[in-house]
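can u do me a favor
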């Protein structure tokens, strides 16, 4: 029976070696490798020369190759390749390639190629990766990635990425034919889609850039953020006036279609002025070279820095006409929702089509207008 098992393992090894190059030519075959720590094991001081069908080590083991299952209490070291499952309490290290599952409490490393799943409590490192890297802290791919990198803090791909990078803090990659999702920041060369809690940075973006604050790109038609620095896009400064005696200095920035809006201003409706801060996003419907319609959704906060606070959410439809290459004029209707602790909301408008004051909070809805001019930078 032992001879039959050995022959089967030898046949499997021969078939595997015809499909890929290895850095170490195995010389010996073992049906099972059991030990405490190198060289205290059934393969002794020659353990590094053996290809094993299965391996079990209380502390640490070393081998040339693993064909189905390998487990160690602390660490596994494989000089050539691992197929199937390799598990360690602390770390796994494979010099050539892994096909299957690599799971460790702290770290996994593969020098050349990983196909399957790398799962580690802290760090995964691989050359070319196809499948998934999942870690509590960071994933690093030194070559191309096809699949998923998911990390609690940071993902790095130094080659082409086809799939997704998902990180709690930051993703960094070259060309990405997929999506980057990060809690704080994404950086890439050419990318399909980026979404970050604070900032995205890329060269050419084919799809959407979505951020909580800023997008930076050479070319991006659909940046969604308050500030968008797009080299082949547009940036403009101007003055916007709203019904209710509000005047805002505004900055619009974005790509050919989507853009962001930020503004600061003052409301003169009351004897004591209200100071305003605004942020939002917009979209251009380009009808001709000189005429377009701007659709904007904004949120504006009004305060006198004492006891009056208003929050106004607005939807705007603003036809715009360009006068030359720099100046743009726009004007159009707005639909506004106001919320405040003021019992009637008159600090913002007198023309509510619906209002309600309940439990110390005022809510009102009114139709207004906005008009202004912008100078393209």
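np, heres the sequence
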């Amino acid at each position: 029976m032992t001879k039959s098992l050995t022959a089967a393992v030898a046949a499997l090894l021969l078939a595997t070696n015809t499909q890929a190059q290895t850095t170490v030519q195995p010389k010996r075959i073992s049906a099972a490798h059991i030990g405490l720590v190198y060289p205290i094991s059934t393969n002794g001081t020659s353990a590094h020369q053996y290809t094993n069908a299965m391996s079990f080590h209380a502390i640490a083991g070393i081998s040339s190759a693993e064909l189905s299952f390998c487990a160690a209490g602390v660490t596994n070291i494989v000089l050539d390749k691992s197929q199937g499952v390799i598990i360690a309490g602390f770390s796994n290290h494979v010099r050539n390639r892994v096909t299957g599952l690599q799971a460790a409490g702290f770290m996994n490393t593969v020098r050349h190629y990983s196909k399957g799943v790398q799962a580690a409590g802290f760090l995964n490192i691989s050359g070319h990766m196809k499948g998934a890297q999942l870690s509590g802290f960071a994933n690093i791919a030194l070559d191309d990635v096809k699949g998923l990198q998911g990390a609690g803090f940071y993902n790095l791909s130094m080659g082409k990425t086809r799939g997704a990078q998902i990180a709690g803090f930051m993703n960094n990659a070259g060309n990405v034919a997929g999506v980057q999702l990060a809690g704080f920041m994404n950086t890439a060369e050419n990318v399909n889609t980026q979404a970050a809690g604070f900032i995205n940075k890329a060269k050419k973006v084919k799809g959407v850039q979505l951020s909580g604050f800023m997008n930076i790109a050479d070319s991006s038609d659909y940046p969604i953020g308050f500030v968008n620095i797009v080299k082949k896009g547009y940036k403009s400064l101007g003055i916007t006036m709203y019904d209710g005696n509000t005047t805002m200095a505004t900055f619009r920035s974005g790509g050919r279609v989507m853009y962001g809006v930020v503004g600061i201003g003052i409301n003169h409706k009351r004897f004591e002025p209200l100071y305003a801060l605004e942020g939002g996003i917009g979209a251009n419907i380009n009808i001709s070279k000189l005429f377009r319609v701007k659709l904007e959704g904004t949120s504006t906060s009004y305060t006198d820095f004492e006891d009056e606070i208003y929050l106004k959410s607005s939807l705007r439809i603003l036809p715009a006409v360009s006068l030359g290459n720099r100046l743009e004029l726009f004007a159009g209707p707005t639909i506004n929702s106001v919320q405040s602790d003021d019992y009637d909301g008159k600090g913002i408008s007198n023309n509510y089509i619906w209002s309600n004051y309940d439990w110390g909070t005022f809510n009102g809805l009114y139709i207004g207008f906005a008009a202004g001019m912008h100078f393209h930078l």
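The first helix runs from residue 2 to 17. hope that helps!!
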